[in-house]
């Protein structure tokens, strides 16, 4: 009986040591992150003739299915602006928007073996991401089309509208590791193009194409818990 208990204790001890050793060499990661980001935007496909750069900020929450497969919920506020009195139409607008986005993000490290190549290791944090978004448009300024006014015509518009959009994002996530080789802080640099399922972003319903806007963002994410293990070593 004593021998059986001793044998079982040794097995449990060995399993515990094995688990701790695994945690020390970088297989563990946090399943939850919170973060924030700042960006610059352009209304890159609208019904005005010139583009302007405007700011935005966002807060985000991430569920990490793995260190390289991430589900991200994002809340953002910002401005979009375009047009000029020096153009032929003299159209100008300014939109103070809020947006809500859910994205699935897949990093190269989920798909490649990065353990034997310095180049592959460098590219493991490169990602593609897409999902679904919802934008609240609040157009605070908008001029009439000068060419139409000469003909006695105007373009009707709504100041406040809501639209669905599809975000497509390419980026890179710099991972900073703690003393246990777990990703603790992430610096996210990305370019995102948002395809609007409508034509109200600039308050000009004109032309043959829906609106769109692009963004470059820099953000920081912080691991907040739910530590679990991954099948591959994360840190090299």
TrEMBL record:
Q: Organism's domain of life? A: Bacteria
Would you indicate the residue range of the signal peptide? Answer: 1-23
| Keyword list, A-Z | Signal
Indicate what this protein is called per its UniProt record: Outer membrane protein beta-barrel domain-containing protein
Q: List the source organism.
A: Mucilaginibacter gossypii
